[in-house]
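Example 3.2
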Amino acid sequence: MPPFLQLMIESAPALFWGAVRFTIPLAILSFALGLALGFLTAVVRLFAPAPLAAIARFYVWFIRGTPLLVQLFVIFYGLPSAGILIDAFPAALIGFSLSVGAYTSEIIRAALSSIPKGQWEAAYSIGMTQGQALRRTIVPQAVRVALPPLSNSFISLVKDTSLAAAITVPEMFQQAQRIVAVTYEPLILYIEAALFYLVLSSVLSALQARLERRFSGHGGHWESRP
């Protein structure tokens, strides 16, 4: 067996464990929290009074205008100088959730805005309040519009979790870095890590395609593409 293949086989369990224990949970938790934050931000920007909408716009502007890596460094390395100590995993979770919230808020805001005004009027005509119309009529239609870009955001997030290695989260990429420090074989280990991310992204892309086909078969406004 070639030495490089032997090294990849021997290091695979460590990378797999890093993915299962940290990469995947970090991605799922960050996306769930970020999606909730993004929905709240989008609703505030669309329907809240001007002062609250301005705060939401500032949050989106600031997060989208600064690098994610810098945000992680501020949270993990910068806040301790102000007396705020946060462990690596929670710091990464906060950073990724804030980032996801800013980006998904724009997706959700666009999806909500894309629903024709007549849908609101139809909901009001049968006695719904604004909240009921949003929950029962607008959001279900907006989900169909927002699902493809939100799915893409989640796939990108899975890959972006590799940035957590910079703040000592022992996720998959940092496991590869640790093995490189011992074996001095960066090319082999980093290619192997890339293959792991490629597999994860491919599985998620297949799931995304299935979701798109399912929604397009239930009155969606778009059709899935192979």
